[in-house]
Design brief:
- The chain is built from one helix and nine strands; from the N terminus they run ββββαβββββ.
- The two termini are about 30 Å apart.
- Helix content is about 5%, strand content about 55%.
Amino acid sequence: MGAGIRMVGGQAVLRPARAGCRVRIEADWTATGPISEALKISARLLDGAGQPVAAQDVAPVHFTYPTTAWIPGETVHDVYDLELTCREAAGPYTPLLVLYRSADGSEIGRAELQPVELRQSADAGGHTGP
């Protein structure tokens, strides 16, 4: 992805939530060398037109493990929960992870994961996964 960070694994899973739906994105990152700047991740869920329907911008591991502390070669597991209102239309949604600089917001790299499928459920018009 750049800046000495490589994504070595990732997936998105649809999970039930109290009021609506939740897509959990899991990512495994590794530092290929020392990282000298604080980076953040924008986890997004895109509809079929490429428009974001949910997003979360965070420092890694829920703001507890900044990229400047990562040890080259280690794998860092991170999780991002994106809440949906269930007003979104049924269909595929693409999880997108964007790595960017905290200081100025400039993008370092991005990765799209396999789409998740939202579909109308029989109860209360909500969405469920496969």
